[in-house]
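Table S2 (continued). Query chain:
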Amino acid sequence: MRWLGRRAFLVLALVPLVAVAWAVAQGPEVLDGGVLTETTRWIPSLGFGVDLTLDALRWLMVLIVAGVGVVVLAYCAWYFDDGAPGLVGFASNFAAFVGAMLGLVLSDNLLLLFVFWELTTISSFLLIGFNPTHRASRRAAIQALLVTTLGGLAMLVGMLLLGSEAGSFSLAEIVADPPSGTATTVAVWLVLVGALSKSAIVPFQFWLPGAMAAPTPVSAYLHAASMVKAGLLLVALLVPAFADVPGWRPVLLTLGVVTMISGGWRALRQIDVKLLLAHGTVSQLGFLLVVLAIGSRTAALAGTALVLAHALFKSTLFLTVGVVDKLTGTRDLHVLSGVGRRLPVLAVAAALAGASMAGLPPLVGFLGKETMWAALLELTHAGNPVGVAPWAGWLLLAGVLVGSSFTVAYTLRFLWGAFATKPGVPPTPVAGLPAPFAAGPVLLATLGLGLGFAGAALTSALDPYVVQLVAGDHEEYLALWHGLELPLLLTAATVAVGLALFAVRDGLCAFQQRVELPMSGGRVYRAILRDIDRLAVEVTGTVQRGSAAAYLAIILLVLVAGPGTALVLALLDGPDLRVVAWDGWGQPVVGLVMVVAAVMTVRSRRRLRAFILAGVTGYGCALLFVLHGAPDIALTQILVETVALVVVVLVLRRLPDYFTDRPLRPVRYARMALAGVIGAVVSGILVVAGSSRTTEAVSTRFAKAAYEFGYGRNVVNVTLVDIRAWDTFGEISVLVVAATGVASLIFLDTRSGGVRRLAEADPQTVETTGAPGATRVRRTWLPAPGTLSPDRRSIVFEVVTRLVFHSIMVFSVYLLVAGHNLPGGGFAAGMVAGLALMVRYLAGGRYELAEALPVDAGVIIGTGLFVAAVSGLGPVAFGGEVLQTADVYVDLPLLGELHLVSSVGFDIGVYLVVTGLVLDLLRTFGANLDRQILRAQREAESQEVDA
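Corresponding output:
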């Protein structure tokens, strides 16, 4: 991309061009009434699949999305300059948006449609905010993201509810056999909230003009030809099944007319020609909503034709603005003068597109508008096919007539402002126009003109979609000439009124300024954001006081108020509680010791004593596991408790000896009471939940599955590395994130500050032994204790370390290899290896830790994740599934027959992650704290000498 520069856009344009070619190739079958489908099961339990459909309506949208995408991407090659900042990201996001929009258009599954819906939202956010240094771009991008995401969340709830009511998330099945009832009505309206927000319909219309801060190609594609059509497409797909849902026509038709008139009214006073087109786009979207929401065949034919026409003329006009802005450096219609004479070809293309937008013959826009008038006139007759009252039909016709007159007026304002020679305004300097730069708007304008003569072909192409709607009084068709009838008279009336409005444009602008409402959608949005920000500040200032105890108390109180209340209600119903107090006398004895240790922990004011007592409860829990016959879990509990105790003791070196010097205060008794209540609530929930089981536990099948599919006899370990391997992979990933987060909170430099071995030790940073040359110890095993001061050395500990270190490491390897059939596994083995490293550290300090394992902890953790991932993906290369376990028997000399299981590779990854995690903790809370303590001691000694 960087090598090609802006010419890379031409290469990217080939991708949607392939989509256009594919759609054209499918045209004969689709236009003959066929429907192409492609289904791939993804998450069957959720009804989530990659279900793609191509029918007549979607075929038209594919041509619009991909076809206009080709033109706009090619246009970008001349719009941007080589070396423009962020060009690679812009091109990538644009291509991603085209792909997401194609996926949205073709999706038949509602959940898949939502995924692509949100992908278009994210892509548009990135494209609108293309220039992050401009505050307007950032604000516009955030505004578009918030508004459309809010609608999207409402739509997701509606889709889930609609799929639940219909028993399927397939849009085709839902439309073929639509559900009914209150829940369906609520679901449809929630979906429509998302559609209206995406298509900038009142009250969500304000985000689209703000999005004009984006580069002009973005405006031409996202907000004229593609993204804003998503909501209209959803309305068009739903109208055959849900047009009779309560409130559908009254609400949608009213919002459409209001949007059309308000957008056109605001467009009439804009000075920036691009902003003029933006408000005009809002007006046109309201117009399209009116036509598509009626639900008759005539309206559907007009609506789909106008969707095509709008894509062509609006993208043409936006691309034209981009050329004018690029060559003149301004978009101010009061400054632009004589541009049409300098750019005649571009002016003609803009005039053709403007004529299509105004509904003038022989453009394609005229075909759609003539049929639209016929559809509206049908509504003025009693007994019309969609059941609209005649008086409502006349009101709707009058509203669209006003909006169409505004369309003619702002079209003339645009053409006059961008290209006309204005008296008293000096001619605008215009740079030379490269022919390829104008090719895009000229091509799209020519298509709009050519399709104006293809009314019969368009009628035939759109017929497979149109026939799904209610038939009108007579069969309608697209044509340039329907005779001297009322629709032609209405078109003439809109042109006449539009000309009159343009003639009095100056007075009209002054009038608009005088009657401007003090409130608008944009102002309401900003006011809401200000209030939310203020509320967030107040709430944060109230509850975020920097007290960890207060935060924990709030969390626990919510637990008591929520699940605790549910527990009390369940107990009041008198559940059949099945409780076995104990299986043997050892269990209550251990439990009593744990309770006493817990109480003493709460009452202790000395930190070390409190943590040791807390450790007693942990070891007691491990003993309970042993008494219950779970040696694997007991081993893991003991190892975790031991590692945690050592790490806590290392941390305590930098903390005061006591929690507080003050006597027990009432608040501590309150905390004790809260702790007791929490214990009672959790215990009660466990008892009630365990007693309420009505089906066989899934874990009862694990023993057989572990042997038959995991090829191991240790059910616990096979569950971790096979049956629930996805969970284990997620957990070790969380371990990595947690370790990184803890290290980052404590230290702001590298993860371990560098792994410095004894040979690299700085004499100024080691503790002196009082003997000359003590730091230059001879190279022996366990050499680093020579760097410690005498009061920190323990000869007994060093001797014990020499005796047990290698045995501990061998034992960890044994646990790793034997864990598939015997107690052990990667996690326990990693913990044992970590304890061996702890022994080396405690015997010789931080340099001994580096001698024991001179590798950065992050490398070990990353390698472990990589090994686990590769072992999980390995079966795919042999035709299996991800994380599928395979076994093989190998005959080896001397060793005999070995039974090898592929999941051992996954266990090795877990082993490395856990070992690296413990090493990370040792270097974070051990080695780095050692350096801090030594530095503090030297500073204190230096101050004493100075004194």
